[in-house]
User: Fold this.
Amino acid sequence: MTDALFWHRLQFGFTVTYHYLFPQLTMGLALVIVILQWKAWRDSDDRYSRAALFWGKIFALNFALGVVTGIPMEFQFGTNWARFSRLTGSVIGQTLAMEGMFAFFLESSVLGLFLYGGKRLAPAGRFATAALLFLGSWLSGYFIIATNAFMQHPVGHSVSSDGTFQLEAFWTFLLNPWALWEYAHNMTASITTAAFVVAAVGAGYLLIERHREQAELDLRIGVTLGVIACLLQLFPTGDRQGKLLAEYQPVTLAAMEGLFETGPNAPLALIGQPDLTTRTLQNPIVVPGVLSFLAYGTFGTTVHGLSEVPRQNWPDNVELLYYAYHVMVGIGTALIVTMALAALALWRGFLFRSRSLLWILLLAWPFPYIATTAGWMTAELGRQPWLVYGLLRTSAGSSAQVTSGDALFTLIGFCGLYLVLGVLFLALVGRELAHGPDEHAAASSAALSPEVA
Assistant:
């Protein structure tokens, strides 16, 4: 049977990939909700309050599934990755604890107040709870990203003679430059996901001629946020992430591009198939010099290829890394084009009448999820074969006492459980979408009433 390390990695990869389907929408929706609630307070407009409450319900369902699917990941640090936890716990335990104590509790505490406090809170109070919900959600995201950034670019620590990591400079660790740019890139991706979901719901309502007023509102905010977030994904956040890779993980950059030979004027691969046997990119379509420019700012700069690095220090699965990266970039480009066309149509005043564009927006909502999944696969496959880049190999971090049979058995259990949870989640979201925002009109009106203290 395949060794236990493979099953440990596959199990954690499956659980974290499934889990992240939910937080990426909650973090993006948190911004949508706070904007809607701010406009409801500022303009005394019931439409925005109804929309905020409607998306708050979707937020709550995502939040609940995110919690349920996130708990097994916490346990896996002890069950599947015990040696990693023992060696690095005094460092990464800081941000993981802060995520639970300061962010998760804040987010969960104010969510119920936001959803069910409409009859007791004035508009300013509802905006305050929405702002706290946003703060908790985005703080939670940062602490998790800071943990991952340490694994990608470890700073602010020392390593003792027995291999144990110790935290030496807390603020250096917490404000890791890699964390700041990874966080910016991740959050703009979350906004992109939320924007496409919000726009898709608005487009769907218009196509079936229901909730027209709210549908137009959803399309306006979805398309506006979407085009901004998509552009920020490209520049500066995506650009800066690429330059950090070139500086600190050049072997990862080479694998992402299928670049085997070192040289100046390195080409950007648009398409091709990496062949590890011949160490070439088969059937390539490339743009000469562009990789050098994107990575270092000049076309003539030398970019290091995989052949310069010992084979044991290559990413474990160069082919999958290469394809994941190109799927992310390809879909990301399509998302930019889609939102740009929708924004142009919105500006020119014909988006709400264009059934072809409405259908495109309706059908486009899964693609940000695919792009973010491919993006995280790129980041984590690129970090291999290291758990802490350059310092702790993945093979040295797994739990020696958990066998391949144990890991496979629990993986099958997770697959079955998550299938049930996924069906339940889709049914509950479908019910909310069928009800629409009008169901919450009375609660929203009460929230906006000047008589409410």
Notes: The mean pLDDT is 92. Residues 22-66+78-171+427-453 form one domain.
